Amino acid sequence: MTQHPTLPRTFPWLGLAALALATARLGAADAPALAPPAADRPDMTWFTDARLGIFIHWGVYSEGKGSESWAFHNGDMPYDTYIAQAKTFTAEYYQPERWAELFKAAGARYAVLTSKHHDGFALWDTAQSKLNAKDASPAGRDLVGPFCAAMRAEGIKVGLYFSHLDWSHPDYASVLNAKGTSDEDRKNRFSYPQGPENPAAWERFLAFHRAQLKEIAERYHPDLLWFDGDWERSAEQWRMPELRRQLKAWLPHVILNSRMAGYGDYATPEQALPVHPPAGPWELCMTINDSWGYQAKDHNFKSVRQIVRLLTECASQGGNLLLDVGPRSDGTITPEEEKILRELGRWTHRNAEALYGTTAGIPKDYYYGPSMLNKARDTLYLVCYDRPADGLYVKGVRNIVKRASVLGGGELAQRRFMGAAWASQPGIVIVDLPAAAADPDATVVRLELQGPIELTTD
Ligand code: GLC
Prior knowledge:
This protein is of the alpha/beta class. The chain has helices at 16-29, 45-50, 70-73, 79-84, 96-106, 133-136, 144-153, 183-186, 199-220, 235-238, 240-250, 304-316, 335-350, 352-355, and strands at 52-56, 110-116, 157-163, 224-228, 255-256, 282-287, 319-325, 359-360, 371-373, 379-384, 392-395, 401-406, 411-412, 414-417, 428-431, 443-449. The strands form three sheets. A seven-stranded parallel β-sheet has the order 5-4-3-2-1-7-6. The longest helix is centred in the middle third of the chain and has 22 residues, at 199-220. The radius of gyration is 24 Å and the shape is elongated. It binds alpha-D-glucopyranose. Residues 57, 68, 228, 270, 285, 292 line the site of alpha-D-glucopyranose (GLC).
């Protein structure tokens, strides 16, 4: 059983203990997805070409007073107070077309909405439970359908987040002791087992879980299902192989993230850029500030430069960035978040050629920075965060460099330096980067090569 840290871990003011525990959690739950049998593997092309997605955490917690679901699980807020936040979940100004316009402007190619978080509150009008936006909040309607339609109208692929575990469901017994073992902690039925497992209740819960997923699959046909909350039980208990087969039968092209207890299609590291990329397709999910959902107190936003850095670090290792925003209960995205997304869009549009549809670049031994290659492998994109006074050095490229230029800018001077033709050593390509040609967030230099790239191995 995976050990889970004391959460919420998304608030910096909780200090280092939470951070350490959060780090501990990454190891197990974010292990790379098992490679599924080839016949079962979906075509991942749109996903691996997409590079940037927007994650949206929206639910009863979007009033901004406590963390998503973890607030009651951890005993920071009584359950009744937490769930009463549904009364202010109005979705009054919810216009998913505006979200779609904004996400597209940011350069995102897919978006993932929390259809149901660990608290069990569904954003669609599920027939399986009254705890949903239509029946239990002033929003009074299905919110998932309009989201899917608005994204698709802008050409954005649709992902739906779904928490396997459901701490509100009477048949779901939490087995995770989140906070200590005092008598008070033991009374918290949302985080402490209140008795032995009840197999009949578990069967009922699995039927409910499958029925909700069937609704989602049949009504919304998501391109991607982004699961979470698999850690309290084993793959056997969840019957993950069976669930995987069922999902693929409902949605033959669907892509599944790794939180299927190993039965997903791609790896899902969270909040920390992997130093060594996971094997196979992967995506880093990251908050725009320190919280998944809207938190009124959290203004610790990442700078556009930092986000560009994350995005290019991921892309250069063949991964995507799933950047999370937290709209408010009324359905609006805060001006701070909107500003960041639009400024990010300036960079992604300028540098689109280096981002979408590219693959991981050359190893850092050859260029001290991230890089990407086009699919033909004859164009190399060098990312430069801080302009080097002596120019960009690229070692060991055997190909003739036909042309060097800045994306969204002009041609750059380049020359070969310190080659040893008699020893078959191509030397170093130096590209001059004048200050005026540099981008304030990150400059991308394009090297057009004669033929697919060939690197020296010595
Ligand atoms: C974690 C948290 C959850 C958050 C998710 C996003 O698993 O439990 O609150 O929604 O990460 O990746």
